[in-house]
Each structure stands twice: as C-alpha cells, then as structure tokens.
C-alpha cells in the first residue's frame, strides 16, 4: 500500500493502536499470451488514528467477491520510521474471515 496524499495525522499512532486508512483502488488490464488479465492496486490516501474498527459502505465492481460493506480492523505492527520527507509504518488488516494481512505504508510530503 502506498500513500498518494499528504500524511498529516494529529497524533502519530502507536504500535497496536487502531488506524483508519482511506483507500482507492485502480485496475490495470493487460494481455498475457493472448488472454486478458488484470491487477488491482490499492492506494492509501492517509492514515488516521481511530478508537476501533471502521465500516466503509461502498462497492468496487472489479474486485473479486467485492461486498457492499467492507470492515477493516487495522493497527500498526511496527513502530513508525520518520524520514525528512516521509513516514513509514507497517499496518495489519484483519479480513472478515479473521485472517491478518500486513501492508508496508509510506506517507510522503508534497
């Protein structure tokens, strides 16, 4: 997950704290040996500390098995690394089945 907007939370989250990561998804379609294939990129817009899970209403038609209601429980699993031009953090997201997925997130100043 790569942030494409300015990272300006009021307070930086700590490891294990819930965070809200608004995202957008883009689809790239390409040909592989004469057959169409696609890849989905999920781009984080910002990272904001929150008190608990956030439920986002919406639908992304080109995502496989997309649901009208998506619930994410994300929390940092590694301390923030601050750089002169940006911030990095590793975030864990739990899906509906309880499986955790980790993302390396970066926030860069414009």
Structure overview:
This protein has one domain (2-108). The protein is 0% helix and 53% strand. It is built from no helices and ten strands. It has strands at 2-3, 19-20, 23-32, 35-44, 48-49, 54-57, 69-76, 81-82, 86-94, 100-108. The strands form three sheets. Strands 6, 7, 8, 9 and 10 form a five-stranded antiparallel β-sheet that branches. Strands 1-4-3 form a three-stranded mixed β-sheet, with no helix packed on it.
Structural class: mainly beta
The overall pLDDT, averaged over residues, is 64
Rounded Rg:
15 Å
Into how many domains do the coordinates divide?
1
Instruction: Give the helix proportion (percent range).
Output: under 10%
Overall outline: extended
Q: Report the uncertain regions.
A: 1-5, 60-64, 66-70
The ordered string of helix (H) and strand (E) elements is EEEEEEEEEE
Terminal residue distance? 18 Å
Number of strands: 10
Instruction: Give the percentage of residues in beta strands.
Output: over 45%
Count of alpha/pi helices: 0
Major beta-sheet overview = 5 strands, antiparallel
């Amino acid at each position: 997950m790569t942030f494409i907007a300015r990272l300006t939370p009021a307070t930086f989250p700590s490891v294990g704290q819930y965070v809200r990561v608004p995202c957008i998804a883009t689809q790239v379609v390409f040909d592989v040996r004469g057959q169409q294939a696609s890849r989905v990129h999920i781009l984080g817009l910002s990272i904001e500390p929150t008190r608990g899970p956030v439920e986002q209403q919406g639908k992304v038609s080109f995502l496989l098995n997309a649901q009208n209601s998506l619930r994410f429980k994300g929390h940092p699993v590694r301390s923030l690394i601050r750089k002169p031009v940006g911030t990095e953090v590793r975030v864990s997201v739990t899906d509906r089945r309880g499986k955790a997925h980790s993302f390396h997130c970066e926030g860069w100043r414009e």
